[in-house]
Design goal:
Helix content of chain A is about 80%, strand content about 0%. By secondary structure, chain A is mostly helical. Chain A has a domain of about 70 residues. The longest helix of chain A is centred in the middle third of the chain and has 30 residues. By secondary structure, chain B is mainly alpha-helical. Among the domains of chain B are: about 50 residues; about 80 residues, Phosphorylase Kinase, domain 1, CATH 3.30.200; about 150 residues, Transferase(Phosphotransferase), domain 1 (Orthogonal Bundle), CATH 1.10.510.10; about 200 residues, Alpha Horseshoe (Serine Threonine Protein Phosphatase 5, Tetratricopeptide repeat). Helices cover about 65% and strands about 5% of the residues of chain B. Chain B is built from 42 helices and eleven strands. In chain B, the strands form three sheets. In chain B, strands 1-2-3-4-6-5 form a six-stranded antiparallel beta sheet. Chain B has a three-stranded antiparallel beta sheet with strand order 7-8-9. In chain B, a hairpin with a 2-residue loop joins β1 and β2. In chain B, α23 packs antiparallel against α24, α34 runs antiparallel to α35 and α34 packs parallel to α36. Classes of the chains: A mainly alpha, B mainly alpha. At the A-B interface, α3, α4, α5, α6 and α7 of A face α1, α3 and α33 of B.
């Protein structure tokens, strides 16, 4: 039997080697499964919110792993990082789909335009992801705010509640993180 | 600054940013100056970062929602335990038109507090309105008063769910509380004065309630009054897209009932603090008498609206006994006020009647100027002092009746609105501003019910979070219409008519017909002439499409006969005449269709009000009829009139505008004015491609544009549009456009001197035409014409001539048999003349060119100009020149130059050729 997410979190927090990769792999699998389940439930063409996916995944794991499961703030700390990866991958695959799916390769401006936007958006998200990883190395709390707000769609109030800190602190972290990302992405564009 | 490659800068900047970001602007400058003294390099870094931060705010970096996040309507049903803002939902409290209300608790570890959370229909809060919604919510949240239930928070969840968090009040509506507690008049007035104090406080903060009614005025068990939902009507109104739409939807949900709405709210006039005075007047009326003033004078929804706008309410003292048919009710109402009916009547008569009347004036300017003044008069009454309000004397009333504008017209009925619980029938005064006028007319105008229906469908019939088609929505609307069928037959019929119309626009004729037949059958049971008439005429329109001309005409006659010859029914008559015109069109009686539309225009002109919207529709109808009849010039005049109305309306009518510009452009093209057609068609393309709902521009439109471009010697571009049109037509299975696209391709390639590609397009087209159209169809002649260019480019002038002779023979035969081709013959003649010049036979060329000139001049009149006429004169000039007749060539070249400059522009190769010939022959 696979180790539970709860036990992986414990392992990560006691700095066991390779536990981070294992935890992220497990969370990625769970989040993607939940996302697919929700999309299947809503039908074709629907989109779902990352918050919903996180909520559902949390409930799933709590039911599965029982009382040993980590609290919600800790869950979000890891899951929001994983959600970022999931979203970037999704953007890339959607772009690939539009470009390569090619039953109708037409001169319609709309299609080309849409694919182009998707391509640029996927690239932009990936670049943000790389920069966030760099930020996370020195300031994990700042990176986490970006994951929760930008990638997962939580509000300042919700983040403050989840982390047990003042809303003002969340905002300050957000401002600083945005500055780091903007600066880093700008520098990357100059390179 | 130069960006560093590593993150070393961040290690330096991060702690400094923590410091400086906490400072206000002037302090930052000092802080930076101090830093600069110590460490100029670092100061530069921080300064540039602060500048960058301002740029980040300005561009909203990372603030936009990710495109992967859901559309706001993809919401799930709220469930207990769901977190909304800082609250957790506990249990549902109720459901209304605006959304659902939940009891929620805040558990922040220190204490537990309850609140009511309103989860609003997402459609109610417009796109991109989140920030504004939160900002406005914050303003309302600052409104604190002991008698006002506070707004704690407003926002939109990450999932897109708009919400309001309100102070939770347990209590009873004020009228029920007063009756249950058997409060006497003085106690009721005391309670009411508390309400006035709360409203006055809000007004002092520039917040208008806009929706005061008993269910928003609760009394708690301890007897304290609490007003709910302050300013929320406005919050929703401005968040949603389009104020009128929100009126409808609010009415549908019963959130704003016309019974408490002031006249200005019903006709979309500005809402002010005095609007609340009116609603408070209604509330006081109800508290004093137990009766609602409007129900004393109106029964049906339509009457309710009319009464709210026009009818003077009976004074409170008059309804205690006389108002109820049933004496027991009167006794009961009086006993709940601790008195008898006759004593209650006497108590109300006089000052209270006068005070209530002043609060309930139709004209906002005649009401109490403030809630405070209203309260003062009530206090004077309670203290037995003279009140300020004056009772209306007979002379005053008589004078007012005369002053009230003589042209005030009651415009009857209509609209989904009727069914949605609102209803109308309204007096519109000529002095009112255009916006208001158009609002009123819009309610009444049949075609516009479609917009209302859309709003209704999207807000109420749309399944949440699922993709849906319009057709599915209409099916839902149908089911709702069935449920709605109660005692409101008029409303039921109106909804059926709206849905039927929608099906017609979707070309789902069978479904449309089924609904319209039902509407017509149901309409027989009602007395409302306009409903009966429109049901008959709408069905006629659907039948005409199915080719049942006789029954359609009979229904039109039936519908028109229903309508009395009164100005009240002008718009219904216009609506019926539009259907009549469509019926005639389907019978191919074009002249009759034109006449019916012109009759509709005259009828409309007899109305005391102008409506650009209705005029627009009629001009568009007329233009289409003219265009169909080949009367392009008259069509263009009508199109221009229509486009003026469209501009005057300033409405975003993408669909209508796209159609208008396309058809106008093609009428101009038909007149031989491609230079004028080009910008108009371009506008049509811009309009339809900017509409997010359009998947792509219509292939037909793209093709039309390509054709015009080719005529303007922009064959490369024309070719591109023809290709796009063909691809689009393939997907849509539109064969006509595919055929025409091939012709445009061939002619463009010929223009570019690419005979092989032109021949390829023709070879593709030829077998299709052979299969699908008759032998003498102009399409075959068009192929021959293009083949003559192909042959010429390949150096085979004899073959070119053979092709053109064959084309002319076909068209002559077609015209002789009464078929199409008259307009095409001059083009062929000019072509044959050109070839004759090439072949050294100027005499033949002159003869053909003259024939062409005569035919075109006969068609367009002596003052007209066209590309065709210019080309014919150019060929004539060249032929005469080749004959050596310098003078005749000169005058022909002059006409050619003038014509071509106007039709194709000064830079067109043909115009330049004509001008060159003119200069040479001078």
């Amino acid at each position: 039997m696979l180790p539970s997410v709860a036990s992986l979190v414990t392992a990560v927090e006691s700095h066991e080697p390779r536990a981070v990769e294992a935890l992220f792999a497990a969370l990625y699998k769970d989040l993607r499964r939940v996302a697919n389940r929700e999309l299947g439930r809503l039908g074709q063409g629907a989109t779902i919110s990352p918050t919903t996916v996180l909520h559902e995944a949390y409930l799933d794991m709590a039911a599965r792993d029982g009382v040993a499961f980590p609290d919600r703030p800790r869950f979000l700390r890891y899951a929001s990082r994983v959600m970022r990866g999931l979203i970037i991958d999704h953007a890339r695959s959607r772009h690939a789909l539009k470009r390569g799916g090619g039953i109708e390769i037409t001169a319609l401006d709309n299609d080309l335009h849409g694919a182009e936007i998707d391509s640029r958006e996927a690239e932009r998200l990936a670049a943000i992801g790389v920069a966030l990883d760099r930020l996370g190395e020195s300031d994990p709390a700042l990176a986490e705010v970006v994951d929760l707000k930008f990638f997962c769609g939580f509000s300042f109030v919700e983040i403050a509640e989840a982390q047990g800190i003042a809303e003002r602190t969340v905002q300050r972290r957000w401002e600083k993180a945005r500055l780091f990302l903007h600066h880093t992405l700008g520098a990357a564009a100059l390179e | 600054m130069v960006a560093e490659l590593g993150d070393g800068w961040w290690a330096v900047a991060s702690p400094l940013l923590d410091e400086v970001l906490e400072l206000a602007e002037p302090e930052r400058t000092r802080w930076l100056a101090a830093l600069r003294e110590r460490d100029p390099g670092t100061a530069d870094l921080v300064e540039s970062l602060l500048a960058e931060q301002r740029a980040i705010d300005a561009e909203g970096f990372l603030e936009s929602r990710l495109p992967l996040l859901p559309a706001p309507q993809a919401l799930e049903e709220p469930i207990a335990g769901q977190v909304v803002g800082a609250y957790t939902l506990v249990a549902p409290l109720g459901q209304g038109g605006m959304g659902v209300v939940w009891l929620a608790s805040r558990n922040d570890g220190r204490f537990e507090r309850h609140a009511a959370v309103k989860l609003l229909h997402a459609a109610r809060v417009g796109r991109g309105a989140e920030e504004r919604f939160k900002r406005e919510g914050a303003v309302l949240a600052r409104l604190t008063h002991p008698h006002i239930a506070g707004l704690v928070d407003a926002g939109v969840t990450a999932g897109g769910q708009p919400y309001l968090i309100l102070e939770h009040v347990r209590g009873e509506p004020i009228d029920r509380f007063a009756d249950a507690s058997q409060l006497d008049l003085a106690a009721r007035l005391a309670l009411f004065l508390d309400v006035l104090a709360a409203v006055a406080h809000a007004h002092a903060n520039l917040i208008v309630h806009r929706d005061i009614k008993p269910s928003n005025v609760l009394v708690r068990e301890d007897g304290e009054v609490k007003l709910l939902d302050f300013g929320i009507a406005k919050l929703l109104d401005e968040s949603s897209e389009g104020g009128a739409a929100s009126h409808l939807t609010r009415d549908w949900g019963g959130a704003m009932t016309p019974a408490y709405a002031a006249p200005e709210q019903l006709v979309d006039q500005p809402v002010t603090t005095v609007t609340d005075v009116y609603a408070l007047g209604v509330l006081l009326y109800v508290l004093l008498t137990g009766r609602h003033p409007i129900h004393e004078v109106a029964a049906t929804p339509a009457e309710v609206l009319r009464a709210a706008l026009e009818v003077e309410f009976p004074p409170p003292s008059a309804v205690v006994i006389a108002g109820g048919s049933d004496a027991a009710t009167a006794v009961d109402a009086a006993s709940r006020r601790g008195t008898t009916p006759s004593k209650l009547t006497r108590a109300l008569r006089g000052d209270l009647d006068t005070i209530v009347a002043k609060a309930l004036k139709k004209d906002p300017g005649e009401r109490y100027g403030s809630v405070a003044a209203f309260a003062d008069d009530l206090r004077h009454y309670l203290a037995n002092e003279p009140i300020t309000a004056r009772a209306d004397t007979f002379a005053y009333r008589a004078a007012k009746l005369v002053r009230r504008n003589p042209v005030a017209v009651a415009l009857a009925t209509l609209a989904v609105l009727t069914t949605l619980g609102g209803a109308l029938g309204t007096a519109v005064q000529a002095r009112r501003v255009r916006v208001q006028r158009d609002f009123a007319l819009r309610q009444l105008w049949r075609a516009e019910a479609i917009n209302d229906l859309d709003v209704f469908l999207l807000s109420d019939a749309a399944p949440s979070g699922k993709p849906f088609t319009v057709s599915e929505l209409l099916a839902d609307a149908e089911r709702i219409a069935e449920r709605q069928h109660g005692d409101d037959t008029v409303g039921h019929v109106e909804l059926l008519l709206s849905i039927g119309d929608q099906y017609l626009t979707l070309d789902e004729d069978a479904k449309a017909r089924r609904l319209l037949e039902r509407a017509h059958a149901s309409a027989r049971a009602v007395h409302e002439p306009s409903t009966r008439a429109r049901a008959a005429c709408a069905l006629a329109g659907a039948l005409a499409r199915a080719g049942e001309h006789d029954r359609a005409e009979a229904l039109i006659a039936e519908g028109l006969a229903e309508l009395p010859e009164e100005v009240t029914f002008v718009l219904d008559r216009v609506s019926c005449l539009r259907n009549a015109s469509a019926v005639a069109e389907h019978r191919n009686a074009v002249q009759q269709a034109i006449e019916r539309t012109q009759t509709a225009q005259r009828v409309l002109a007899s109305a005391p009000l102008r409506s650009e919207l209705v005029e627009l529709r009629l001009y568009m109808d007329l233009a289409e009829h003219f265009r169909g009849a080949g009367r392009h010039r008259e069509a263009c005049v009508a199109f221009e009139q229509a486009s003026r109305r469209l501009e005057a309306l300033g409405r975003d009518e993408t669909q209508t505008a796209g159609t208008l510009y396309n058809n106008w452009g093609m009428a101009l093209f038909g007149l031989g004015h491609p230079l004028e057609a080009e910008p108009i068609l371009r506008r049509a393309i811009e309009l339809s491609s900017s509409d997010a709902n359009e998947e792509s521009v219509s292939p037909m439109l793209l093709l039309n544009y390509g054709w015009v471009l080719r005529d303007l010697a922009r064959a490369h571009e024309g070719l591109r549009y023809a290709e796009r049109a063909k691809a689009g037509a393939r997907r849509a299975g539109d064969r006509v456009v595919i055929h025409q696209a091939l012709i445009v391709k061939a002619t463009s390639h010929n223009e570019l001197n690419q005979p092989d590609q032109a021949e390829a397009a023709l070879a593709e087209l030829e077998p299709i035409l052979a299969r699908e159209v008759s032998e003498n169809h102009p399409g075959h002649a068009a192929i021959r014409l293009e083949r003559s260019y192909v042959a010429e480019a390949r150096g085979n002038l004899e073959e070119a001539r053979t092709q053109i002779d064959a084309a002319l023979a076909m068209m002559d035969a077609s015209v002789a048999a009464g078929g199409a081709g008259t307009e095409f013959i001059p083009t062929l003649l000019v072509r044959r003349a050109d070839l004759a010049i090439e072949r050294g036979r100027p005499g033949d060329a002159v003869a053909d060119a003259r024939r062409a000139v005569d035919a075109i001049t006969a068609a367009i009149g002596p003052d007209g100009f066209s590309r065709g006429l210019g080309s014919a004169y150019l060929t004539l000039a060249r032929a005469l020149d080749a004959q050596g007749d310098r003078d005749a060539a000169h005058s022909a070249a002059r006409v050619a130059t003038t014509q071509l400059e106007k039709a194709l522009g000064g830079d067109h190769p043909k115009t330049r050729a004509a001008r060159k010939l003119l200069d040479r022959s001078a």
